Structures are given as structure tokens and as C-alpha cells.
């Protein structure tokens, strides 16, 4: 597309829609940069169940497997 065509159509939009279009363009630029910055020679590391547990990324309560009081009527 020619810049003049894009410019003329952009000018027809309201200020709110112009801002929305600019935000979307920023999103597309970031998306393109992420795709082009990924190393092509590395394969994705397979996920291992429980791998994050030792990293402290989450904490599971000690009573996780205990029945919930809210379900006593159904048991």
C-alpha cells in the first residue's frame, strides 16, 4: 500500500479510532519482533510435569487433597 492511501484513510477516522489503530500497529510490531528474535536452531524444551514446583513459582497448600467443607452435604 502507498503511504498516501494509508494517510488519507487514517485521517477519516475519529481520534479514538486513530489511537486504537496506532495501538494495534504497536502490537503488530512487537509481535513481529518476537517472532524474528526467536532462535531458529533451538527446539522447544519439552515440558516436565512438576518442573516448576521446586522453583517456588507457586505454593500448594498442605490440605489441597482434603475434602472441602462446602461439599459436606453431597458426601
Describe this structure in words.
The protein has 75 residues and is mainly α. It has a domain at 1-36. It is built from 2 helices and no strands. It is elongated and about 70 Å long. The mean pLDDT is 83.
Mean pLDDT: 83
Structural class: mainly alpha
Topology as H/E string? Answer: HH
* N-end to C-end Cα span: 66 Å
Shape category:
elongated
Helix content: 40-55%
Q: Largest sheet at a glance?
A: none
Identify the quaternary structure here.
single chain
How are the SSEs placed, and which strands pair?
Layout (H helix, E strand, L loop, with lengths): L2 H10 L2 H23 L38
Notable characteristics:
elongated; 75 residues; mainly alpha; 44% helix; single chain
Summarize this entry quickly.
The protein has a domain at 1-36.
Amino acid at each position: 500500500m502507498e503511504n498516501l492511501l494509508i494517510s488519507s484513510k487514517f485521517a477519516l477516522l475519529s481520534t479514538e479510532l486513530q489511537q486504537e489503530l496506532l495501538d494495534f500497529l504497536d502490537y503488530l510490531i512487537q509481535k513481529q519482533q518476537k517472532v524474528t528474535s526467536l532462535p531458529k536452531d533451538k527446539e522447544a524444551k519439552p515440558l516436565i510435569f512438576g518442573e516448576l514446583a521446586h522453583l517456588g513459582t507457586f505454593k500448594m497448600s498442605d490440605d489441597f487433597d482434603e475434602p472441602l467443607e462446602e461439599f459436606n452435604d453431597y458426601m
